Amino acid sequence: MKFSLSLLLLCFTISAAHSSYESLQQNPNYHAYKEQSSEGFSINSKPSLEDLWGPFWAYQGIQSFAHLPFQNCLMIDKDSSNDSELFDIAIIGVPFDTATSFRSGTRFGPQGIRSASMRQDKWRGFNFRAGINPFDNWANILDCGDIPVTPMDNTLALKQMQLAYKQLLSLPGNTSVVPRYMSLGGDHSILLPILQGLYEVYGEITVIHFDSHLDTWAPDKYPSFWSSNTSEFTHGSMLWLAHKYGLMAQENNLHVGLRTRLSDDGWEDYEEDNAVGFKRIVADALLDEDGLSKVVDQILKTLPKDKPVYISVDIDVLDPSAAPGTGTMEVGGLTNRELIHILRKMKGLNIVGADVVEVSPPYDTAEITTTAAAQIAYELMTLMVENGPITEEFINKNKKVLAHSGEDLRLTALDRIIDEERKYQINRLFN
Ligand SMILES: [Mn+2]
Fold it and tell me: Which residue of 15, 59, 128, 162 has the lowest C-beta tally within 10 Å?
């Protein structure tokens, strides 16, 4: 029995090799193994230039994220843009790292993540966990390049980022009313101008924040005699500032993956975090019995189903073994598999934007961190596609939140910072 099966396989191999040789001779357009009777076979068909030079190997070509089409979206004039320029979801890099409290290097994050995304493309982009190919669905997705942020002056950098997001979010979408942005950091401070831009479109945003750290620290939690308003804009204080400027939901924002040491001798940091409107899930919660599903339940119970939600992923939420290339590592973190599992369970939420930040290629090893970040960005864009186009109705429904906010919160966080900075300096110098 064994012998006859081997013989049968041998005969099959010989005949397959023979017929593939014939096909190759007669029509080089087709793969060698295909029979002449294969669908689409024609002896007279001439290859197009696309046939000849369109397909590429993953490591070839000029590297945009996942080989997506590239367009400098900050150069699109919304008043004279044509339909061919419109898009629904876009990668935007924010190479800014001068608001870090420890190791810098995330200015190289966007290019590092793009490079690590080279094995992603539309052709093999089907997400088996989701059952869709995000790159080949309703959404027109592209790579918008980077915001050219200055590394010399954080006040100016914040102004640039804020204006960039305002401009990007004022572009019309292709199918969506407003495009969604998948931001690649950069240090975590970039979240402030992102939330500021989103606020002007949607009103208050609920934030789910995957991070080992709180990032709701008041600026004075970095003790120093020396202080200016600009020095208070950091990658550990941006959520505190976002709350101060009324950009986030008043409650039910959520941290996932916390394990940072806390200030002084107690729970003061958590109390302040409560006041900023956050609930907390620590990394150790995953070790409880049914920890992973309990964490997912808590996330779904906390986040609103009918309001705009923003997902911010600080790569340091992953264990340092899974993400060594970051500025402020904390041991005892999530695996990639856990994080992706949790993100997949967030299908159906109204994700209006997302980021992956704190990716620092100079500290990375063997592209471990950038590859994780590229996969997480892919999962986040999958969620955006699953949620469908953003509609005028959705925006109008949520903008009502603004009516209750009293103060004119459209005044930009940044203009206030600059204004306060100016007054502070004048007082200091001349009074
Ligand atoms: Mn962070």
Answer: 128
319 and 204 Cβ atoms separated by less than 8 Å: no
Q: Could you tell me the distance, in angstroms and rounded to a whole number, from the CA of residue 97 to the centre of ligand 1?
A: 12
416-421 long-range contacts (CB < 8 A, ≥24 apart) are 416/245, 417/155, 417/158, 417/229, 417/230, 417/233, 418/155, 418/159, 420/229, 421/155, 421/228, 421/229, 421/230
Q: How far apart are the CA of 409 and the centre of ligand 1, in A?
A: 25
- Ligand 1 mean position, distance from CA 355 (Å): 11
CA of 225 to the centre of ligand 1 (A): 24
In the three-class reduction of DSSP (H, G, I as helix; E, B as strand; rest coil), residue 149 is classed as: coil
Q: Measure 240 CA to ligand 1 centroid, in angstroms.
A: 12
* Per-residue pLDDT tens digits for 362-378: 999 999 999 999 999 99
Q: How far is CA 349 from the centre of its chain?
A: 16
- Residue 46: per-residue pLDDT: 77
Helix axes 191-202, 413-430, angle to 10 degrees: 130
Top pLDDT among 222 and 202 is at 202
Superfamily designation of domain 65-404: Ureohydrolase domain (3.40.800.10)
**Distance in Å, CA 211 to ligand 1 centroid:** 6
- Residue 278 alpha carbon to ligand 1 centre in Å: 14
- Between the CA of 312 and the centroid of ligand 1 the distance, in Å, is 9
Give the residue extent of every domain in the chain. Answer: 2-53, 65-404
Neighbour tally for 383: CB within 10 Å: 22
Q: Is the dihedral of CA 183, 377, 91, 324 positive or negative?
A: positive
Mean pLDDT of 114-133: 97
* Å from CA of 285 to ligand 1 middle: 19
Distance 52 CA to ligand 1 centre (A): 46
Q: What is the whole-number distance in angstroms between the Cα of residue 387 and the centre of ligand 1? A: 26
Evaluate if residue 259 carries a pLDDT over 90.
yes
Residues 55-87 pLDDT 10s: 889 999 999 999 999 999 999 988 877 777 899
The alpha carbon of 424 and the centre of ligand 1 are apart by a number of angstroms equal to 28
User: How many other CB atoms sit within 10 Å of the CB of residue 223?
Assistant: 7
Report how far residue 327's alpha carbon sits from residue 106's, in angstroms, rounded to the nearest whole number: 8
